[in-house]
Input
Amino acid sequence: MSSTANGKNGTWRNWGGNVSARPAREVTPASVDELAAAVRRAAEDGLRVKAVGAGHSFTSIAATDGVLIRPQLLTGIRDIDRENMTVTVEAGTPLKRLNVALAREGLSLTNMGDIMEQTVSGATSTGTHGTGRDSGSIAAQIKGLELVTADGSVLSCSEKENPEVFAASRVGLGALGIVTAITFAVEPVFLLKAREEPMPFDKVLSDFEELWAENEHFEFYWFPHTGSTNTKRNNRSAGPEKPVPQLKSWIEDEFLSNGVFQVTNWVGRAVPATIPAIARISSKALSARTYTDIPYKVFTSPRRVRFVEMEYAVPRAAVVGALRELKAMVDRSGLRVSFPVEVRTAPADDIALSTASGRDSAYIAVHMFQGTPFQRYFTAAERIFTAHEGRPHWGKIHTRDAEYFSRVYPRFGEFTALRDRLDPDRRFQNDYLRRVLGA
Output
């Protein structure tokens, strides 16, 4: 069941291409027992262990020089409980396969992010989220977890069983054990009506509270170097279903959002001076549209243009101020930013290291095209976000450490104490966890 890493001579790389690692060995377990045995064997050999999903994190959260566990054989739905409206799914299942399988069963998650390439365990362990007034991240929809801990035992947790582990492990950063199965709350599949339309940046900011309060799911993209945004409002609908026609969908979601966008980014990378002009055209290329479809077809969209990303959660009340500062910084900096800034929200949740832990949050995500220098932009943006006690997405680029997190997460100590109990020898440690959680 061992294999070599992908790429040349055993090197593993993430999706964004900015992180690589050379594990001593790779294991692709076909069962929970095989995974537990791999953890025990790693301990005997004195090696650290990391599980890796689709590699969609931009941080080195999954990198290891020890044993790399690939969960692609641990996939599929284990159980559907229609009485309690839960679905238990193996940890390596990609979100897109879960979404399709649930839809076939007439079921759906309540909320989801805009990318569905990730595995369920990778997405939840890093706190991946969409946008929602009342519904939180993917991890906030978890009802139960199964994980293999450092001594190779299998631990189940929920609100009733090992509740202190449940409180932390839903966004566990891979630090508490290797997740092998997740039980999600689901509901009967429903329709969402999406309304996408351009709106001036200043208007979105002045009306932000209203737009947030009046819509179940509100988000917008601001195009740097312009005063333009594209807004998206998703609300439940009684129907009828009215999907985007196939050709229109291809033109807008593939040709414009991936194909032309890829080419304009190539041009921008080669000749940065062209970026503001391209941004003005791009911000006008997407016209208003409304459509009605099942949730995953509305929430998610393909992302084929590769990028690197930083995203911070700030208190919801601080988002308008932070965005004004971000725009002022970009305008005076001489930076050339070809990717839109994405803004979303989430209600407070009760997960120890969730970016929305204990506070209503808004997310500001900054991106740069893969291969362009991003440090100056991200450093300046991060300075703004941290001034608002921002909490970075665990899977996206940031420079924060344990000392900072102990200040912005009231339950940080609860998480690290649990880690001391579950992984005293730091079997699941790597450089990233050493930085963000402390030694």
In short: Residues 77-189 form a domain with the Uridine Diphospho-n-acetylenolpyruvylglucosamine Reductase; domain 3 fold (CATH 3.30.465.10). The longest strand covers residues 191-200. The chain has 14 helices and 21 strands. The chain has a mean pLDDT of 92.
